[in-house]
């Protein structure tokens, strides 16, 4: 079971597939799975397209590391070899059937790729030939199952609501730190929200003011969401604090035709001489 105990969000990058409308958006997060940490690299771009019924089968395969730490994560020195093996596996599967790679899971000394494929015929033999020919000194996993609803992608690889909040806030805080911000200095934390109706904005404003926030109304240039609301609370822009506020605001926002546009927490920094 995946628990929302977060360790680090590592990277995010985008590229477009030439053969589909999907814009691939790869992002990485770490969380605890049972009593050990695991690293998930997931193609977030498939969320709006899942399930893709052209690929009704799931193939999970990858090598077991020779050297890993007490938490079950492979040593950095071995990651390149594990990636080489996964790339070779990817090429082999491409030669057997149409497929999409939706994620990679590193956990308990294994680094596994998750593929949705058109057909599983021949895949097991192809992967076994690859390992027996080129990587005899590695143990590996091959698991296949029908998953036409892409349940593994949606409920396991794709981050849950709390994880998404943590990932978004981690990116903002990382940018602040890179710019020289001191997170120990209290400041106004401003959340930017948009509503379809002024009635919704008024109702939401009453809720947040009861929770100790201040509000500022604006008229936006977004014709679909013309009613903007800035929600402000003074405090420390640290992960635990902003996560609590974000979860509180987003939970209430689900009652309205609205969208959440992130937060800022500017503070005057000393001028470098």
Rough shape? Answer: elongated
Structural class: alpha+beta
The overall pLDDT, averaged over residues, is 88
- Biggest sheet record: 7 strands, antiparallel
Estimated radius of gyration: 22 Å
Spatial strand arrangement across the major sheet: 1-2-3-5-6-4-7
Instruction: Outline the low-pLDDT stretches.
Output: 4-19
For the secondary structure, the number of strands is: 11
Helix content: 25-40%
Q: Provide the β-strand percentage band.
A: 35-45%
Number of discrete domains: 2
DSSP summary: helix tally: 6
**Secondary-structure element sequence?**
EEEEHEEHEHHEHEEHE
Structure, explained:
By secondary structure, this protein is α+β, with helices and mostly antiparallel strands. It folds into 2 domains: 2-157, no CATH class; 182-264, Alpha-Beta Plaits (2-Layer Sandwich), CATH 3.30.70. Helix content is 31%, strand content 35%. The protein has 6 helices and 11 strands. It has helices at residues 76-94, 123-134, 151-157, 161-178, 198-210, 239-253; strands at 2-16, 23-33, 36-43, 57-63, 99-107, 110-117, 140-146, 187-195, 214-219, 227-235, 258-264. Helix 1 (76-94) crosses helix 2 (123-134) and helix 4 (161-178) packs across helix 6. Residues 4-19 have low confidence and may be disordered.
Summarize the structure in short:
31% of the residues lie in helices and 35% in strands. It has 273 residues and is α+β, with helices and mostly antiparallel strands. It folds into 2 domains: 2-157, no CATH class; 182-264, RraB-like (Alpha-Beta Plaits).
